[in-house]
């Protein structure tokens, strides 16, 4: 188990930090940090957890995150097999709110940019032409130095603050309530569910993992995640099912059991509840 998930990614020589991530899998730790972050997935698939939101990700996934919002791109289980031959690739950019001075965003000309920063505290996912532009700029900024990197970031942020194409990720009013001292506990829970969602998950086992009674754990999880533990598990399972439905290689019954549901009827009922369509309708729509 790695250290608690409050990350320190401070650079002593750069105002804007851009990194190219190439590993067998993305960082499996659910974490947060005091920086703004632009991130795009070039290669890899899995589950994306941001705040109280759960989605699958694939190449092209591009987001802008504000400070201290917990996040995780958990690669699919195959990426953790040493002989899988799979790899992940992403580009991430970090900067702090005061990277141009503490009062910069309070100036009248910065109103739209300030609103973008506020919106990013829920996380923003980009699609379409705006997503493609962000990805292109992040790739270009890998090779920028000094003032040019700051200028290019400001131009990109200005575009993001004036054009449509972004969708909020976490629910309205989401606030990170995790303390650094307790994040390792939730990391254990998240890791366990992401590794075992296709199997039966007993509440008692997970509560024991967190060092709590079942009742106390349920209250704790709901207060921290803005959802019940059962909803969290089901959203992970439904997200996995959505991915398999779009691959068009399996029957709906096979997908139901592979995603951890004990019956086809239970799968259909939960899929309709979380997605708003039946599995067959979802597959047909896409």
TrEMBL record:
**SUPFAM superfamilies on file:** Homeodomain-like (SSF46689), RmlC-like cupins (SSF51182)
Coiled-coil annotation reads: none
What InterPro entries is this protein classified in? Cupin_2 (IPR013096), Homeodomain-like_sf (IPR009057), HTH_AraC (IPR018060), HTH_AraC-typ_CS (IPR018062), RmlC-like_jellyroll (IPR014710), RmlC_Cupin_sf (IPR011051), Tscrpt_reg_AraC-type_HTH (IPR020449)
Q: Which part of the chain is the HTH araC/xylS-type domain?
A: 187-285
Q: Which UniProt keywords apply?
A: DNA-binding, Transcription, Transcription regulation
Signal peptide range: none
Pfam families to which the protein is assigned, alphabetical: Cupin_2 (PF07883), HTH_18 (PF12833)
Q: What is this protein called?
A: AraC family transcriptional regulator
Which source organism does the UniProt entry give?
A: Dyadobacter luteus
